[in-house]
Amino acid sequence: MLEIIGQLVGPAGTALVIAAVILISGIKILKEYDRAVIFRLGRMVPTRGPGITYVIPIVEKMVRVDLRTVTMDVPPQDVITRDNVSVKVSAVLYFRVIDPNRAIREVANYLYATSQLAQVELRSVCGQAELDELLSQRDRLNSRIQEILDAETEPWGIKVVLVELKHIDLPQDMQRAMAKQAEAERERRAKIIHAEGEFQASQKLADAAEIIAKQPTAIHLRFLQSLVQVAAENNHTIVVPIPVDIMKLLFDGMKASSNDSASNTGLEQPATNVKGSEPGGGD
C-alpha cells in the first residue's frame, strides 16, 4: 500500500500520509461514563473526558477508566465463628471509581486488589461474630464490612457503595440441631399460649360462677338458652339437666328414709325374740 502511494506521490507524499494517519490516530472518543488517564512523557496529567479528546501520538499514552458501579462476587470463604462453628460465607460487593488518576497510580490492578481485600475482610469480620449474630444481624455485619473496605480503598480512589452477605452455608449437623431448637421453641410457645388460655378461661368461669351465685335466676336463663341451642340442631332427643341442689335433696331424702327403715328394723327384732322366748320359759 505504501509502495503504491510512494509510486504515485513520491517519498514526500508518503511521509505526509503517514504523518496524517498518526495525527488522526490521536483522536479519541470517550463515552459519558469513561475517563481518560493521560501520561505525558511518563508524567500524569489531569484526566480528560467525556466526549472527543486528543492524545498526542508517541508523547502521550491514554488509559481508559470506567466510572460505573462494578458488581463483584466474593467467593465463598471458610470462616470459623467466635463460638467455633465452621461455615462458608459468600458476599457481593458494589464499588465504583471516583478518582481515576489514583485508581491507576496507587495500585497496579484496582479490581483484583479490591477483590482480595474484600475476601480478607469478610473472613475477619465474620470470624469475630457468633453464629446467631451471623444469621440474625446481617445488616450490622454488612455495614461494618462496607465501612472497613471503604476506608481501606479510599487511597486508591475507590468508593465502596454496598456489601451484602449473600449465602451462609451451615454444616448438616448444625442445620439439624437448629431445626430441633426451633421445633422445641415452637412447642414451648404453644404450651405457654395454651396455659394462658386456660388461665383466662378459668378466670372467666370463676367470674360467671360468682355472678350466678348472686343471681339464682341466671342459671335458669342459661338452661333455657341451652335448650334453644339443642333444639336448633333438628334432633329429637333433648337432655334435661337436673340441678345439683335437687339431686342433693333427693339423695338426702333417700338416705334419711333408709336410716329410718334401719332403725325400725332394729327395734322390731328384739320384740320378736322376746315373744319367741315366752313358751320356752313356761315349759
Number of strands: 8
H-E order: HEEEEEEEHHHHEHHH
Between the first and last Cα atoms, what is the distance in angstroms? 176 Å
Give a quick account of the main beta sheet: strands, pairing sense, barrel closure.
Answer: 3 strands, antiparallel
- Please state how the strands of the largest beta sheet are arranged side by side: 3-2-5
Rg, please?
50 Å
How large a portion of the residues is in β-strands, by DSSP E? Answer: 15-25%
Low confidence ranges: 271-283
Shape by Cα distribution: rod-shaped
Structural class: alpha+beta
Count every helix, treating DSSP H or I runs of 4 or more residues as helices: 8
Give the proportion of residues in helices: 55-70%
Instruction: Output mean pLDDT.
Output: 82
Question: What does this protein structure show overall?
Answer:
The protein is of the alpha+beta class. The chain contains 8 helices and 8 strands; from the N terminus they run αβββββββααααβααα. The chain has a 3-stranded antiparallel sheet. A 3-stranded antiparallel sheet has the order 6-7-8, covered by helices on one side. Strand 2 and strand 3 form a beta hairpin. The chain is rod-shaped, with a radius of gyration of 50 Å. The chain starts with a helix and ends with a helix. Mean pLDDT is 82; it is low at 271-283.
